[in-house]
Amino acid sequence: MKTRLSAIAVSAVLLVSLLSGCCLTDPIYYKTMAAFGQEKRDLLASKVAKARDAQKQTQEVFQDALQQFGAVVNYDGGDLQKEYNRLSKELERCEGRADDVKDRIDAVEKVAKDLFKEWKKEIGQYQNASYRADSEKKLRATQQDCDRMLEAMRTAQERIEPVLSVFRDQVLYLKHNLNARAIASLKGETAKVETDVARLVADLNQAIEEADRFIAGMGE
């Protein structure tokens, strides 16, 4: 029964979105989700979790790409076209991950902005001074935690493009130079690529940890 209701809820949200052309910040979206027990606070936690999961997947994809790069530069005979195609496919996966991470972080920022705006407005409705002071304190703490998390996420996101740039150059170079000499020339890039990917993975780990802390804090 619960699964059926969830499916109906999702269908209703999708229908409202299609009919109204609303975006994530549209009040109609929030009202529809609230009708099914999903307030902005719940939506924010959900968006953060999705951004965190996207970052975890990005780690895996870029590490896979690094392995493929290593396989190419250690080429020892075989079909060079096949090696190029494999590396090109890994580049596409990395670019797709980069776009997804950006979209997920943007979604977190949008919901956070709307939540904090609503929260601040509702604080003014308190008649009880003690409740108002406590709510203000929690708002400041949550905003600070959110800012720290988003900073970590954006730092990791910015680290992605330099790695992609190196991969793009390598794939493009191989496209027009499918020979052993071209492969040998890429070996000089190995150390830099490994360092860049390791730094990216470390930054993504930091962002993931911040996301976990924020989600845990939202549940307190």
Describe the secondary-structure layout.
Blueprint (H helix, E strand, L loop, with lengths): L1 H19 L6 H9 L4 H34 L6 H44 L5 H48 L3 H7 L3 H29 L2
Helix pairs in contact: 1-2, 3-4, 3-7, 4-5, 5-7
What does this structure look like?
The protein has 220 residues and is mainly α. It folds into 2 domains: 1-38; 40-218. The chain has 7 helices and no strands. The chain has helices spanning 2-20, 27-35, 40-73, 80-123, 129-176, 180-186, 190-218. It is elongated. Mean pLDDT is 86; it is low at 16-25.
Q: How many domains make up the coordinates? A: 2
Number of strands: 0
Classify the secondary structure makeup into a structural class: mainly alpha
**What is the CA–CA distance across the termini?**
29 Å
**Uncertain segments of ≥5 residues (pLDDT<50)?**
16-25
Count of alpha and pi helical runs: 7
Q: What is the average of the pLDDT values?
A: 86
Structure keywords:
220 residues; single chain; 86% helix; 0% strand; elongated; mainly alpha
Q: What's the gist of this structure?
A:
With 220 residues, the protein is an all-alpha fold.
